[in-house]
Specification:
The complex is a heterotetramer of chains A (446), B (422), C (349) and D (281).
Chain A lengths: L1 H8 L15 H7 L63 E3 L2 H8 L8 H7 L1 H10 L3 E3 L2 H12 L7 E7 L5 H14 L3 E5 L3 H5 L5 E2 L7 E2 L1 H19 L12 E2 L5 E2 L5 H10 L4 H18 L4 E5 L25 H10 L6 E6 L20 H13 L3 E5 L4 H13 L11 H11 L3 H9 L2
Parallel strand pairs in A: 3-10, 3-11, 4-9, 9-10
Antiparallel strand pairs in A: 1-2, 5-6, 7-8
Helix pairs in contact in A: 3-7, 6-7, 9-10, 10-11, 11-12, 15-16
Chain B lengths: L11 H14 L39 H12 L10 H35 L8 H11 L16 H4 L24 H26 L14 E3 L2 H8 L5 H15 L8 H5 L2 E3 L13 E2 L5 E9 L2 E9 L4 E3 L10 H13 L6 E8 L3 H16 L5 H9 L30
Chain C lengths: L1 H8 L3 H12 L7 H10 L12 H12 L18 H4 L32 H5 L8 H11 L13 H7 L3 E3 L18 E6 L7 H11 L3 E2 L4 E6 L5 H20 L22 H19 L10 H5 L2 H16 L3 H15 L6
Antiparallel strand pairs in C: 1-2, 2-4, 3-4
Helix pairs in contact in C: 9-10, 11-13, 13-14
The chains are: A alpha/beta (446), B alpha+beta (422), C mainly alpha (349), D alpha/beta (281).
Protein name (chain D): Small ribosomal subunit protein uS2m
GO molecular function, one term (chain D): structural constituent of ribosome
Pfam family, one (chain D): Ribosomal_S2
């Protein structure tokens, strides 16, 4: 009898941070309403925590008047430098905020922006975090700095350089991409950003036979979404009055519809958005035209693609003969494969690879398994991508972990009594094993 | 049919012969029954009471002091033609004699057989001990029966045949115990004693109250003890006690314990208490070894359900290597917490590296097996105080529960198939 | 009345004789001489008791339940210094009357454990009464004359492995059941090191493909386990046959073996691989674009020359290493460095 | 029917001799307690005198120095039990207090003196006679080495009875009566066991409604019984019934005193007689 009691007791650890039954009260504070925190005016009773922040930033920090007394006052390390180009290794582990005017364009986190559904499905966790903290804070980490350094040193007359960001489950590959997206946007690149390829192979919306080439499969609605996303991110380039982004030949969509040569690429996109039937072909045209134009002009294109290895793996789209559509018959995949080749210039290709969401890889909950590029890209991917530069994303270093916990305490995301103590931090460190995603999941319920 | 039963007339000398046999072959008696003492005084202070049941609770065997007392009496009354042996005593003596004759025969047979076995095994008869006999039987008649006492054995007759009960009455057939006819004299004697003490303490209290005295703040120190369990009591009193009887015993004793002067009968109460916490078992901590780089490490093996874990705990910086992965080998938080807990408990999270191999079983089993393995390894590095803390936290207790087997006609161990009345 | 009757049963020898004759008289199947004798002793009336009284019925039952007189067990006549190996020369099941030991088996909740007589448990278990130390000594003495001396050449295990590379493993456990034959008895494992077969690279490759998981690359051992035949001898011969067949089959080269595709290669081959083409093209492109910026190197640089560049060579080594030895952190890092050098990217500090 | 066959035990012999020697008691011929009861002012000597009158064959109170067993049994009061108590003692101990009228067992009607506030009052004159009779039997049995078992199922008085039995060197059973103690003793005690020669019930009831099992079983086994029977009890199966209050601790203590003294006196007497006999030889 005694021993069974002790087994029960062991369910709670010393600090009580990790336990099975989490009372809902700890969550209530966060999810009480869609707009949880009323912004309080700083005064003498409620000093602004981040008073080092420059005043011109409209990002207001979270200051809540009903701060529980037990919570420690912690300030996470931040940098006010908002240009990624200026980030250096000295800032490693620091947070910085993407200015809202840029953030809205790049990440489109507000429900009013186009293709919200796609981003909602792909960048959900990031969106929640940014919405609740009322700021788009990104931690500056080494892999992003590394890629930026390479890009800065790149000779753009050479064929495009491909980067493959790899690392284990939850180590922060997608977050690295968000940082890089900001970097490319800031540098004036045209963004060819695919938030997550694997949703097209598993969670597609509508399927139709291709008109352009029989036997191929189109995903019209998904394509429309992506075009909207592209338009959102690159509106300033496309809508320029004297843009060089023009077609070099006439595209005939149907008997009555055609896009003449010399018309701006935004026309192509408009066709795709308005006529979903042609959206897939529009993407093909867009890729072809962009590759052609940038090789000759001073525009630069950054292809940023999450889970690029899904381009080379089968889909779950059923066919009449009860088989599934292979990757080389999905026209979207074929179009985006073209961007990964190094037969064009004046651009850069940054991709990540992942095990999760790949159709024929067994789902492993333990976060293990082979995560290396050659294995995940497979024969076809290797043939397309080689030679590329693999960039490893490691788990948090101790410095980054501390800063992450500090940030979460500061933003009141982490509210446990023992969260700020050394024992609590140790427990979070060991139980999460410095893995960012695991840490996020742990903290989400504390 | 024995000679006795054929209606042969009993004489005193005959009896003595019988009794001689009875006393000679019965083993040494552990206690002596002093018989019933007749009138005894209960008045006076509680400490003076002479109604001590201490003798009553000792185990009693065939023959022994009762018979020797009887022999003494028989000797005294040898010339007395009026000496009458009660039928009960006569029957008892017959049984005793038959038993002793039988045991004597068995003893002789066993000796011969021991010589036979020594000859078979080619050993020296004189030095062929009981251990040698056991070894030989284990070799000649090997059995893997799970129950060890069901395996073949060859033991001396004293260990094979149960000892018989000693007589509970004297030569005239009068039982020794006043409560004999209740069937549970020892048990009811305890109840009587408790009631006796309670009354005497009540009297004492009355007397003190009359003198205007307040009972002292003394209390019996009963920490770490509890009433003896039903089985313990049964064993102690040599009587089978029912649940109801046991409840009554506890009630009575609790009432006595609540008395303000209960400290005066501490000795009596302590007799029926047992120490609750068993002493720390002789944990054999694994011996720390040194690896090539001079770091000391300890190894252990632990199980949970069908899972086996081999754990190495090495001085280090808090790294985990579980089946080649780090702690995220376990997708669930609880499992990671389980593994971490022993080190966290002793505040040594960053003092050791854990290298574990866990096989079979599920995630939870693996985690708990590794936890147990880490705890065992830790015993090699901790102080005795920390060890005691770990034991109290249950870290050193093996979880011996296993999956309950499925039963036929059921869908699981106990769950019944879905059924609806038609 | 009943008490009186009971007393008379035990009251002496005289009554018991009459009791017996009374009883005999009840039945007509008694031999006539006895019956006559009984009649002479009897009183004038004889009653035919078709439904004998309870008392007499009981007497009958007592008689019929009496155990017959048997000879005492043989073990009681044995001398304590006898030669046991003659009493129990071979393996046989337990006989309580022959074994002079008061063994007991099983347990009882009350009283003594069941003794050896009529104890089926003792017969179920195997016994080694025929293999006492004395019996073993006798056996060894009898076998001694058939033994030969140990060859001097085989001094240690290494020498043994050298002269006898093949290893045959069988098990000879006794089964604790009605038959002592263990079902594992017939299974044969045949082990031999692959290196001792002296195969060339083609034959070795084919041999290994045919073997599948029967080869352990760490110990270089081939293990063939045969259990499909009913006896050990057949299984042993079958294992030898299998090894021989595999050996000869692997030495052959069939026509279809020339149709080997890239996916069938055991190792990565640089020549003609997509990596080679990609690397060559990329480097050439880089050089071409560099010449555009007024550098003297020519456009007509041949792919062969490109392949001789140190960067490309290093790249080749890195790729081959990564793909042959499998990916791990070091090999991927080496590949990264090689690509960086080849693409002329700076080092990230 | 049971009593017809001659028992072999000590108690049986005593019991039969006594039964044949004494004339049956004439219920109601005792002094008219109606006069004595309300006042109860008589002295001990008066009381004694009255008793002598009621038993005209009474011998001198002092017991004979030596006598044969037959003489002993014929002696009306060999152990001086008559002097042990007076009717007044009975009254003071509350022996006369019966139960409510509604609970009256019809067989007890003969012992009822009257009723007060619906509570029955027992006729103490009869009680005294029966009690003396019973004490005499008890003493004779104890003198011959008989086993006396005191039985009481009353929770409150159990301790008293047990204590008394220990002090008197006899046996008691105040607990749950498991079946077969008398009727199947060899199995219950796992050996041949000597049974008690006399059962003394301090209360013949097991609970308010049930009779004690031992009453039936003692009758079955031909063991004589002495029993305090209250107004709600059935005296039929009790060999020597004593009408009286069986509940109050004070009353039970009084009975205890009487029985204990009788037992000890008898034992003492036995010792003296034996010693005298030895000396004579």
């Amino acid at each position: 009898m005694r021993s069974s009691v002790s087994w029960l007791r062991l369910r709670n650890t010393l600090t009580g941070l990790t336990k099975i039954h989490v009372s809902t009260s700890s969550r209530r504070w966060i999810f009480s309403s869609g707009c949880a925190y009323q912004q309080a005016q700083p005064n003498s009773q409620n000093p602004v925590f981040f008073d080092h922040r420059p005043a011109q930033l409209s990002v207001t920090p979270l200051v809540d008047t009903s701060v529980p007394a037990h919570l420690p006052v912690v300030n996470a390390k931040r940098t006010t430098i908002t240009r990624p180009r200026e980030h250096t290794l000295d800032h490693e582990g620091f947070y910085y905020c993407v200015p809202p005017e840029q953030s809205d364009v790049i990440y489109g986190m507000s429900p009013n922006s186009g293709a919200f559904d796609m981003r909602h499905r792909t960048l959900q966790n990031l969106r929640f975090q940014w919405e609740l903290a009322k700021e788009s804070a990104i931690m500056i980490r080494k892999p992003a700095l590394e890629v930026m350094e390479y890009v800065k040193n790149t000779n753009f007359a050479h064929p495009v350089v491909r980067y493959v960001i790899y690392g284990r489950e939850g180590s922060g590959r997608t977050c690295t991409l968000t940082h890089l997206l900001h970097f490319f946007k800031d540098e004036g690149f045209i963004l060819l950003h695919v938030p997550k390829i694997s949703i097209w192979s598993r969670r597609y919306k509508e399927v139709q036979e291709s008109k352009f080439k029989p036997g191929r499969i189109d995903l019209p609605l998904d394509s429309v979404e992506w075009l909207q996303h592209f338009l959102l991110q690159n509106g300033e380039h496309l809508r320029q009055p004297n843009t060089k982004l023009v077609t070099h030949k006439t595209y005939v969509w149907s008997k009555r519809e055609e896009t003449p040569a010399g018309s701006p690429l935004s026309d192509i996109i408009d066709v795709g958005i308005k006529r979903a039937r042609y959206a897939n072909d529009c993407i093909g045209v867009l890729v072809e035209e962009l590759k052609r134009i940038v090789s000759e002009s001073d525009h630069r294109v950054a292809v940023v693609m999450d889970v690029a290895n899904a381009l080379f793996t089968p889909t779950t789209i059923p066919q009449v003969d009860k088989t599934t559509v292979p990757a080389d018959r999905l026209s979207l995949f074929l179009h985006f494969r073209k961007t990964l080749k190094n037969d064009w210039k004046n651009g850069v290709v940054v991709t990540t690879i992942d095990r999760k969401g790949i159709v024929d890889l067994p789902l492993r909950f333990d976060g293990g398994g082979n995560q290396f590029p050659r294995y995940l890209l497979r024969e076809e991917g290797w043939a397309v991508m080689d030679p590329f530069i693999p960039v490893l994303v490691n788990d948090y270093s101790d410095k980054e972990l501390t800063n992450c916990i500090d940030y979460n305490i500061e933003t009141r995301w982490l509210q446990h009594v023992n969260a700020g103590t050394q024992k609590g931090r140790d427990e979070l460190k060991v139980v999460s094993q410095n893995n960012p995603e695991t840490l996020r999941k742990l903290m989400s319920r504390l | 049919m024995s000679e006795l039963a054929k209606g042969v007339r009993w004489t005193t000398s005959h009896l003595r012969l019988l009794l001689d046999q009875a006393t000679r072959y019965a083993g040494p008696s552990r206690t002596s029954w002093k018989g019933y003492r007749g009138v005894s005084s209960v008045s006076g202070s509680p400490r003076m009471s002479s109604n001590s049941p201490s003798d009553a609770n000792a185990p009693r065997k065939l023959s022994g002091a009762a018979v020797s007392e009887f022999v003494k009496n028989a000797h005294l009354n040898e010339a007395d033609p009026k000496v009458k042996v009660n039928r009960a005593m006569r029957s008892y003596l017959e049984r005793a004699q038959a038993h002793n004759m039988f045991m004597k025969q068995q003893q002789q047979d066993f000796e011969i057989c021991r010589r036979h076995l020594a000859n078979m095994m080619g050993e020296d008869v004189e030095t062929f001990s009981q251990e040698d006999i056991d070894d030989s039987i284990r070799y000649l008649l090997p059995s893997n029966l799970f129950s060890r006492r069901s395996r073949p054995l060859m033991k001396p007759p004293q260990e094979v045949f149960p000892q018989e009960k000693e007589a509970q009455f004297g030569i005239d057939g009068r039982p020794f115990r006043s409560l004999f006819y209740t069937g549970l004299p020892n048990y009811y004697q305890v109840l009587y004693d408790a009631a006796n003490w309670t009354r005497q303490l009540d009297d004492l209290e009355d007397e003190r109250v009359r003198k205007g005295k307040v009972p002292p703040e003394k209390q019996i120190d009963l920490t770490g003890t509890a009433w003896k369990s039903k089985d313990e009591m049964s064993k102690m009193l040599l009587e089978k006690i029912s649940d109801h009887d046991y409840r009554r015993f506890v009630l009575t004793m609790e009432r006595l314990l609540r008395h303000p002067y209960a400290y005066r009968v501490e000795e009596f109460i302590k007799k029926y208490r047992q120490v609750l916490i068993a002493e720390t078992k002789d944990l054999a901590p694994p011996v720390p070894k040194k690896d090539d780089s001079g770091k000391s490490y300890a190894e252990s093996h632990a199980t949970k359900k069908s899972c086996h874990a081999w754990v190495t705990l090495k001085q280090g910086t808090g790294k985990y290597d579980i089946n080649g992965q780090d702690l995220l080998f376990f997708p669930r938080v609880q499992d990671r917490t389980q593994v971490m807990f022993p080190l966290q408990f002793l505040n040594k999270l960053y003092d050791f590296d854990v290298i574990a191999r866990a096989e079979f079983g599920g995630n939870s089993s693996k985690a708990q097996a590794i936890r147990e393995g880490i705890s065992r390894c830790l015993t090699a590095f901790v102080t005795s105080e920390e060890l005691e803390l770990m034991r109290q936290a249950g870290l050193l207790t093996h979880d011996k529960r296993v999956k309950e087997r499925k039963k036929y006609a059921y869908t699981g161990a106990r769950s019944k198939p879905q059924w609806r009345k038609r | 009345m009943a008490l009186a009757a009971r007393l008379s049963l035990f009251s002496g020898t005289a009554t018991s004789t009459t009791r017996q004759t009374d009883w005999i008289r009840l039945f007509a199947s008694v031999p006539s001489n006895l019956r006559d004798e009984a009649i002479t002793e009897a009183t004038e009336f004889r009653t035919l008791s078709l439904n004998p009284a309870r008392k007499e019925r009981r007497k009958f039952e007592e008689r019929s339940n009496r155990t017959p007189d048997l000879l005492p067990p043989r073990s009681q006549k044995m001398h304590v210094d006898q030669d046991w190996t003659n009493v129990w020369p071979t393996a046989t099941s337990f006989k309580p009357s022959v074994v002079p030991l008061p063994v007991r088996m099983g347990f009882a909740y009350k009283g003594a454990n069941p003794d050896k007589y009529g104890n089926a448990e003792l017969m179920k278990i195997p016994n080694f009464l025929h293999l006492t130390p004395a019996a073993i000594k006798k056996h060894c003495a009898a076998l001694k004359k058939f033994c030969t001396p140990w060859p001097e050449e085989i001094a240690d295990d290494a020498a043994c492995d050298r002269y006898f590379p093949a290893q045959v493993i069988t098990s000879t456990y006794c089964h604790s059941g009605t038959s002592i034959r263990n079902s594992k008895y017939r299974i044969v494992s045949y082990k031999v090191p692959l290196s001792r077969l002296n195969l060339d690279s083609h034959a070795r490759d084919k041999f290994l493909r045919l073997l599948g998981d029967r080869y352990d690359r760490h110990t270089d051992q081939i293990t063939i386990i045969t259990d499909r035949c009913p006896t050990r001898k057949q299984n042993y011969e079958y294992a030898k046959y299998l090894l021989t067949a595999l050996f000869h089959e692997s030495k052959k080269t069939e026509p279809w073996e020339h149709e080997k595709a890239v996916a069938d290669f055991e190792r990565f081959k640089w020549e003609g691989s997509p990596s080679e083409a990609a690397a060559t093209n990329t480097v050439k492109e880089i050089l071409t674009s560099s010449t555009a910026s007024n550098e003297p190197t020519s456009e007509d640089i041949s792919p062969e020359e490109v392949k001789q560049f140190e960067e490309v060579q290093e790249y080749q080594r890195a790729v081959s290493d990564m793909l042959n030895a499998g990916e791990h952190q070091d090999s991927v890092e080496r590949y990264k460095d090689a690509v960086k050098t080849m693409l002329r990217l700076g080092r990230f500090s | 029917m049971l009593l017809r066959c001659v028992p072999q035990c000590i108690s049986g012999r005593v019991h039969h001799l006594l039964r044949s020697t004494y004339r049956p008691l004439h219920y109601g011929t005792a002094c008219s307690a109606a006069e004595a009861f309300p006042q109860m002012r008589r002295s001990v000597t008066e009381d004694l005198m009255r008793q002598e009158q009621t038993v005209p064959s009474a011998e001198p109170v002092i017991a004979p120095v030596s006598s044969s067993p037959e003489d002993m049994l014929k002696h009306p009061d060999y152990f001086n039990v008559r002097k042990l108590f007076t009717t007044k003692d009975l009254f003071q101990a509350g022996v006369h207090l019966g139960h409510m009228e509604g609970t009256l067992n019809d067989r007890m009607r003969q012992f009822i003196f009257g009723k007060r506030f619906n509570q029955l009052v027992i006729d103490l004159d009869q009680t005294a006679e029966y009690l003396r009779d019973a004490l005499n039997v008890l003493s004779h049995i104890v003198y011959r080495g008989g086993i006396v078992l005191f039985v009481c199922r009353h929770r409150q008085n159990g301790y008293l009875v047990e204590q008394m039995a220990i002090e008197a060197g006899e046996y008691s059973h105040t607990r749950y009566w498991r079946g077969g103690i008398l009727t199947n003793s060899t199995a219950v005690f796992q050996s041949v066991t000597r049974l008690p020669d006399l059962l003394v019930f301090f209360s013949t009831q097991n609970s308010v409604l049930e009779q004690h099992l031992a009453v039936d079983q003692a009758a079955l086994m031909n063991i004589p019984t002495i029993g305090i029977v209250d107004t709600n009890c059935n005296p039929n199966l009790i060999t020597y019934p004593i009408p009286g209050n069986d509940d109050s601790p004070a009353t039970v203590a009084f009975y205890c005193y009487l029985f204990k003294t009788a037992v000890l006196n008898a034992k003492k007497k036995k010792k003296e007689d034996d010693a005298r006999e030895q000396r004579a030889q």
